[in-house]
Design brief:
Layout (H helix, E strand, L loop, with lengths): L2 H7 L10 H11 L11 E2 L2 H11 L6 E5 L5 H8 L3 E6 L2 H14 L5 E5 L14 E5 L5 H11 L5 E7 H8 L9 H9 E9 L4 E2 L6 E8 L6 H16 L5 H4 L8 H10 L13 H14 L1
Parallel strand pairs: 2-3, 2-5, 3-4, 5-6
Antiparallel strand pairs: 1-8, 6-9, 7-9
The structure holds S-adenosylmethionine (SAM).
Length: 294
């Protein structure tokens, strides 16, 4: 934000994105000490920001949802390419400053800041078609599932998450990292990893690696009550992922291994399989077979 410092260094006189100097100035101004609790690792590298925006395929004029804008590193990158941004930030100091930062660095660009917990948001001031975010890592999966459940307008997205989580989200059946988040994410569409991000682009430097993950929404395969039943099966199967389905699902399918076997057979699923071999469509078939028998 300090234009004089930049002039003195011979860098752009009025930068449009945030670098280390601007992040430092803003942190000082707001007296912000990043907290782990809120997953506050701020990106201070313009090239990374432009790469994320480009990978997301953001188009001028479209409405983009950003979760956790922080000081605005990514927000400014989205505004730079002409997106209209809705940004949800839980930290009041950061949320209050963001319109001022955007007003100075990307004047006149369309930005709406919502000061709220993204996990609790059920209404938005617009219909975003794309999600682009550097997510708070401790809640990245619940936030993604919450947004996909509540906002049908979201058709695609690119998010930065902890590397393990990203690979899990994009994993298919049979993979070692395939788990409950993979199956639940697949309910909403297709997922892929879209490149690593160096730890060095963050302040403070995190002690985990990061990856970009992309999704394209597909039609959901079942109704809302079927989704709830399917997700309960997924949770049960992966709570005891080494056990056969007839055991891991017994508590949610009638109480015994025999009742579970009957439902699994009716669904055309081998009771001796493990959850890690099943697709979301397989879990849905089990949920439907269970509903038909009750
Ligand atoms: N987008 C910024 C960047 O790339 O520099 C900041 C990313 S930082 C990893 C995560 C941000 O999410 C922080 O600004 C933090 O305050 C915010 N945050 C944490 N939990 C949140 C929640 N439940 N709802 C909304 N924002 C949250």
């Amino acid at each position: 934000m300090n234009a004089h410092r930049h002039e003195a260094e011979g860098v752009e006189a009025s930068p449009r994105l945030l670098g280390p100097a601007e992040i430092r100035d803003l942190a000082e101004l707001l007296e912000v000490t990043p907290t782990k609790k809120l997953g506050q690792n701020f990106v201070h590298d313009a090239n990374t920001v432009r790469r994320i925006v480009q990978t997301a395929g953001v188009r001028a004029g479209e409405t983009v949802l950003e979760i956790g804008p922080g000081f605005g590193s990514l927000t400014l990158g989205l505004l730079e390419v002409g997106a209209s941004v809705i940004a949800i930030e839980i930290d009041k100091r950061l949320a209050a400053q963001l319109p001022h930062t955007a007003g100075i660095m990307q004047p006149g660009k369309p930005l709406t800041v919502v000061t709220q917990d993204a996990l609790r948001v059920t209404e938005l001031p617009g219909e975003p078609v794309r999600l682009v975010a550097n997510l708070p890592y401790n809640i990245s999966v619940p936030v993604l599932l919450h947004l996909l459940e509540h906002f049908d307008s979201l058709q695609s997205g690119i998010v930065m998450v902890q590397s393990e989580v990203g690979h899990r989200l994009a994993a298919g059946p049979g993979s070692k990292v395939y788990g409950a988040p993979s199956v639940k994410a697949a309910w909403y569409g297709h997922w892929r990893t879209a490149g690593q991000v160096s730890r060095m682009v963050f302040w403070p430097v995190p002690n985990v690696d990061s990856v970009l993950v992309g999704f394209e929404r597909a039609d959901v395969p079942g109704t809302e009550s079927e989704r709830v039943a399917t997700f309960a099966l997924v949770d049960a199967a992966f709570q005891q992922r080494r056990k056969m389905l007839r055991q891991s699902l017994s508590s949610v399918l009638g109480g015994t291994s025999a009742t579970a076997t009957a439902v699994l057979e009716a669904a055309g699923v081998d009771p001796q399989e493990r959850g890690e071999q099943l697709t979301v469509a397989d879990f849905l078939r089990i949920a439907r077979a269970a509903a038909a028998q009750s």
